[in-house]
């Protein structure tokens, strides 16, 4: 399946804000002092480690917002696998514009490619099983749409985009409501017929309550693989099962082998390591 890029309307304000933050009150005083205004350059975005490309549109937009005369030749679009030394794209144009936009372009590209690469690694680790990797709402402020896009680029799926997407009843909701049943019943009475209801449980006893209430999905939080297998057996296809809780590429295969439908991982968006990408002279 071809992944559609994010609409420019969503991306451009984020890139503009990042550039404005970097330019400050006087612009790039280093580049403007050193580089002649009429000098042109050709630079390449190079991968310095293996991974998956994501965020190339953000990088290109950063260059072109600084100087619309910048020309871009894309070699490896978003979703492409990378080996060290691979060229993602070449950018050519006024040298001042290329150097001024460099850091913002690389910030977006490295961060989003890091998310896509981490997602791809876990997706590959659980490939023999039906489970899909999904992100959470644990995103960096202002970057949610980009980070969730990067998860999709890496072969993962998206959880809720916000609090208004679906009902997710967590432990604190249950505590404040006075129990699982009143929490679920109040939610069902309040939302429309198209809104899904998911309930977080951390024990098989709570799962049994969820089964009696017929919620749409159940979040199996911090359960070991043996408990997850028993949970999946009890659910028996009656609702979507989602495992969560400090899952890594090393632990994900055992979690997936339990038979769960989804594996949600918060660190993909808030803590994935940046993929090392550089901008070098051609």
From TrEMBL:
Domain Quinolinate phosphoribosyl transferase C-terminal: 115-280
BP-aspect Gene Ontology terms: NAD+ biosynthetic process; quinolinate catabolic process
Gene3D superfamilies: Aldolase class I (3.20.20.70), Quinolinate phosphoribosyl transferase, N-terminal domain (3.90.1170.20)
Residue ranges occupied by any Quinolinate phosphoribosyl transferase N-terminal domain in the UniProt entry: 28-113
One term of GO molecular function: nicotinate-nucleotide diphosphorylase (carboxylating) activity
EC code(s) of this entry: 2.4.2.19
Reactions the enzyme catalyzes: nicotinate beta-D-ribonucleotide + CO2 + diphosphate = quinolinate + 5-phospho-alpha-D-ribose 1-diphosphate + 2 H(+)
Record key words, sorted: Glycosyltransferase, Pyridine nucleotide biosynthesis, Transferase
NCBIfam families (alphabetical): nadC
Family in the record: Belongs to the NadC/ModD family.
Stated name of the protein: Probable nicotinate-nucleotide pyrophosphorylase [carboxylating]
Lineage of origin: Bacteria, Pseudomonadati, Pseudomonadota, Alphaproteobacteria, Rhodospirillales
């Amino acid at each position: 399946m071809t992944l559609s890029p994010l609409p420019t309307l969503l991306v451009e304000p984020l890139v503009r804000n990042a550039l404005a933050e970097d330019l400050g009150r006087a612009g790039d005083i280093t580049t403007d002092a050193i580089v002649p205004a009429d000098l042109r350059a050709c630079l390449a975005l190079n991968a310095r480690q293996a991974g998956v490309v994501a965020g190339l549109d953000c990088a290109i937009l950063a260059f072109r917002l600084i100087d619309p005369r910048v020309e871009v030749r894309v070699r490896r679009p978003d979703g492409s696998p990378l080996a060290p030394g691979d060229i993602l794209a070449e950018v050519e144009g006024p040298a001042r514009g290329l150097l001024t936009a460099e850091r913002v372009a690389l910030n977006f590209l490295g961060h989003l490619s890091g998310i896509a690469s981490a997602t791809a690694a876990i997706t590959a680790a659980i490939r023999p099983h039906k489970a899909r990797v999904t992100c959470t709402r644990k995103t960096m402020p202002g970057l949610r749409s980009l980070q969730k896009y990067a998860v999709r680029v890496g072969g993962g799926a998206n959880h809720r985009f916000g609090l208004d997407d679906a009902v997710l009843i967590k432990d604190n909701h249950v505590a404040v409501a006075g129990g699982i049943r009143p929490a679920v019943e109040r939610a069902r009475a309040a939302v429309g017929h198209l809104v899904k209801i998911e309930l977080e449980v951390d024990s098989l006893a709570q799962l049994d309550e969820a089964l009696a209430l017929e919620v749409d999905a159940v979040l199996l939080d911090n359960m070991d693989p043996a408990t997850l297998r028993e949970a999946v057996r009890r659910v028996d296809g009656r609702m979507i099962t989602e495992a969560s809780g400090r899952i890594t590429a090393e632990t994900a295969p055992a979690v997936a082998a339990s038979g769960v439908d989804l594996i949600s991982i918060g660190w993909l968006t808030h803590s994935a390591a940046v993929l090392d990408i550089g901008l070098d002279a051609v």
